[in-house]
Fold:
Amino acid sequence: MNAGVHHYEEIDSTQRVARELADGGAPHGTVVRAEAQTAGRGRRGRVWAAEPGRNLLLSIVLRPPVPLREAPLLTLGAAAGLAEVFDVRVKWPNDLVDGDGRKLGGLLGELEARGDRVDYVILGLGLNVNQVEFPDLPGATSLARLAGGPVDREEAFELAVRAMLAWSGHPDRLTLWRRRAHTLGRRVRVGGLEGVATGLRDDGALLVDGHPVHTGELDGAG
Structure:
């Protein structure tokens, strides 16, 4: 399935360990997995909190032979692949949500460049699997909640890793993302821009009333 899995009961961050392995020459497909993290991170430096032993916390080393401009598409592709295998939706850019917009997980991509090419990307995933109580996150859900009962975490792990590796560089990744999108057709707010998300450009930018948005916070606006 992959180049090797480094499995920990508890570490500070799978992203940090995966980056260290990548710096040491770890090959494409190397996975770092943890049952618990003491300093897990989400997008924009947010803390990713998860109940130990009940969810998926992992990072994968990717070494795609692509130019830097294509780096954002790797994460979009992986998110689309995950949405497909778990039959959920994608909220731009890389959050996994159910049909009502409740969050199941998210992806964090960090890259290292070599000139104008990607040297490696560390793609981190936090996915709620068997956690069912979210007292501090009322907008969260999990695979178990959607399934109505416990989910086999090892099967979910295998599905997740395969999907991320297969779809991060797949030629049809943006087509799949658009098909699995929760964002498109909805009213959103990105910084000071508010409008309807009308499409996803081929460079990964979200179109909000025709205006491309590459980065920033995306919030529901009704």
Summary: The helical segments are 14-23, 71-85, 143-147, 153-167, 173-180.
